[in-house]
């Protein structure tokens, strides 16, 4: 009880809870590139001075790059970019573009003979919306890395969220357009905890018992519960890896690799609160966590509680800011 009471007290003294305070994290810049016709894109979180990172993969069909090096027992303890990309496995190519740009800027691990940028990331499957031949490639990853800034980050149908959708239990034709969202909390002591999440779930996005984006009725005009369909005996539609929610928790806290891993693990609670069902055989749900080391923290549990909250809110913002595309309506089209 004391642990949770302490965490809730910490939340109570937050000075701000919004999207823009992400850039109170001094070591973070964000860039995005989008193909609005092909409906795919890439989002790059740059850490030019490096950030300690961890990752937790809960879905059964992930597509990732360089996640093994984030394990606490492995040598490398800093990453220079986390990439969230559309394009399924093809989107992994975009991360090579991020590496190329960072090397040109002499950002990376200095080996004495070359700078080697440490770039990790994950992809989501958006080939079922828009043009399946449109994929985030090296050039798109390069452009997103080059365009990274500390001024603004758009939400909705941009970056890794350009071709995202949710609620595919009854098939793609009854899904809802989704996108990418962000949310952050700033405490009185200067600690910032934020999240960026691209929501491309097989399941529905829910707030409590209310579906706010997801599986639509046969006439397409209202939301119905995909979970109820499954419990009533509906055959699940899809195949492994066709969905996936990917995201990153970012904080200015000083973290060890083990603490970054724990933060990613606790952050998945935000996935579970906001997406139902989640972590299925059809999803490759992946969540990174990175700390830039500006603020000392004494209670990683409290940071983890906040992390789950900001992940949940980022998911809601992803569907709230999405717009109709690829023949799918957005949540706002059904709730207005």
Automatic annotation (TrEMBL):
Keyword annotations: Signal
SUPFAM superfamilies in the record: DmpA/ArgJ-like (SSF56266)
Domain of life: Bacteria
Molecular function GO terms recorded: aminopeptidase activity
UniProt xrefs under Gene3D superfamilies: L-amino peptidase D-ALA esterase/amidase
Family in the record: Belongs to the peptidase S58 family.
Name by which UniProt lists this protein: P1 family peptidase
Residues spanning the signal sequence: 1-19
Organism per entry: Ferrimonas aestuarii
Record InterPro entries: ArgJ-like_dom_sf, Peptidase_S58_DmpA
């Amino acid at each position: 009880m004391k642990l949770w009471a302490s965490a809730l007290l910490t939340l109570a003294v937050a000075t701000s809870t919004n999207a823009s305070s992400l850039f109170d994290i001094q070591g973070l810049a964000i860039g995005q590139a989008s193909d609005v016709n092909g409906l795919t894109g890439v989002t790059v979180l740059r850490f030019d001075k490096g950030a300690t990172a961890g990752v937790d993969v809960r879905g059964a069909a992930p597509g990732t790059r360089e996640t093994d090096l984030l394990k606490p027992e492995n040598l490398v303890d800093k990453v220079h970019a986390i990439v969230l990309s559309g394009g399924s496995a093809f989107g992994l190519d975009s991360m090579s573009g991020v590496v190329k740009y960072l090397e040109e800027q002499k950002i990376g691990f200095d080996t004495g003979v070359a700078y080697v940028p440490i770039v990790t990331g994950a992809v989501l499957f958006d080939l079922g919306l828009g043009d399946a031949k449109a994929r985030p490639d090296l050039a798109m990853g390069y452009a997103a890395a080059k365009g990274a800034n500390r001024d603004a980050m758009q939400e909705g149908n941009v970056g890794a969220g350009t071709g995202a959708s949710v609620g595919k239990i009854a098939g793609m034709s009854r899904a809802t357009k989704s996108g990418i969202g962000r949310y952050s909390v700033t405490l009185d002591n200067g600690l910032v905890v934020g999240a960026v999440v691209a929501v491309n779930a097989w399941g529905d996005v829910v707030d409590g018992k209310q579906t706010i984006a997801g599986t639509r009725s046969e006439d397409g005009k209202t939301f119905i519960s995909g979970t109820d369909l499954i419990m009533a005996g509906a055959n699940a539609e899809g195949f492994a890896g066709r969905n996936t929610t990917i995201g990153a928790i970012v904080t200015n806290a000083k973290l060890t690799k083990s603490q970054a891993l724990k933060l990613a693990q606790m952050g998945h609670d935000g996935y579970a609160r906001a997406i139902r069902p989640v972590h299925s055989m059809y999803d490759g749900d992946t969540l990174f966590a990175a700390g830039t080391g500006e603020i000392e923290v004494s209670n990683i549990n409290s940071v983890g509680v906040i992390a789950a909250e900001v992940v949940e809110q980022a998911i809601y913002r992803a569907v709230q800011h999405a717009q109709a595309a690829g023949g799918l309506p957005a949540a706002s089209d059904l709730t207005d």
